[in-house]
Structure prediction request, 416 residues.
Amino acid sequence: MTAANGNVISEISNGEKRTYLKLEDIPLFLEDLFIVTEDQNFYEHAGVDITGISRALLVNSQNNDLEQGGSITQQLARNVFTHDRTYNRKLSELYYAYQLERKKSKSEIIELYMNAIYFHNEAYGIEAASQFYFSKPTAELSKAELSFLAAIPNNPELYNPLKHFDKTKKRQERILKQMVAEGKLKQNEYKKLVKETIKLDLSTTIDLYPDYVTYVHQELKNLVASSDGLTKSLQSSDEATHQQAEVELNKSVEKLLNSGVTIHTALDTKLQTQSKTAVQSKIGVNDIEGATVVIQHHTHELVSLIGGKDYKKNSFNRAYQSYRQPGSAIKPLLDYAPYIEETNADITQLVSGASYCSNSYCPKNYSGDSYGMVTLKSAFSQSYNTPAIRIFEKTGIEKSFKYLDSFNFKKVSIKA
Prediction:
């Protein structure tokens, strides 16, 4: 998610980190690493490497496990279509691998493979792994760093660098030795690469401006619900209908987020910081809360939103989840606009600002004073209450509230 200036303000992963790279943006050295270590016959077979399967069956039978084996195409099929480690699923894996080879070129398959394989710690694909483990793009990795990452997917749990760094480093060295044996790396370069220090620089997830970001998440769900025709079902009083709609909505949102979508917002980060400071400094009393919403009037864009004095992400957001009495803010819409529109009154027209009582209803001016006759302009600018109630009565309740219809207020009604 980005702010108006293009800077990233929040990363949404749903537990998975993925960033797709085209083959031309992936170093050829990495492609060679995977082909040499995982599938040396990749460019010759039709999706199934018989030699590799035979070797895998031998290793698996000795270890009573299904850890080893499969061509690069099979491994891609396993990552994309099948995840179970049963022999029935192995047959499905072979079928999918065959279909992939029929419909995709070798270049497309190796590209998909390097973007789909798992590097542990929720990183899928080489770019996500590069950003997570080294905090830089794949294109900036050294050959030593590339080979270190290439050591992980063979057994992500065993070669998880955060828990088993030494094991990952040893496998990296074995991989580089294989590259020498296959003529893909010179001996002197091999010695240089194995001696290069591997220093992890773990990235941290960006998650700024929680007040604003939480609202955007909710707005995204609302947009998806509307697009999928789920809005009415979500508002249904029938619990089963509501729950089913929630399940469908969550699936759609997750699919959208996993696609790598970027959400562009109008957030003014400078204004957001200023708004937060203002709320915290102006409302110092512990048991008093507040919220602000700033909309750019000429673009109608939401440029700032503060959900509370010390708002925490996904907590109750007072800016859009709470309902409050509109107070005097409703007067221009409910009192003055209808009255002027219906009577063609001039702002210099006089209205009584004296005390008011009707049955047991006796509203007072904020100061408690009685002002006598005042102009509409003065009553409006000073937000006097008794003149407002008098012109409201002259316009009429039904007619005055009719003027609010175009504003789509949810909790403002005559009954309220």
Q: What stands out?
A: The chain has 17 helices and six strands. Strands lie at 17-18, 123-124, 292-296, 301-306, 350-352, 373-375. The radius of gyration is 32 Å.
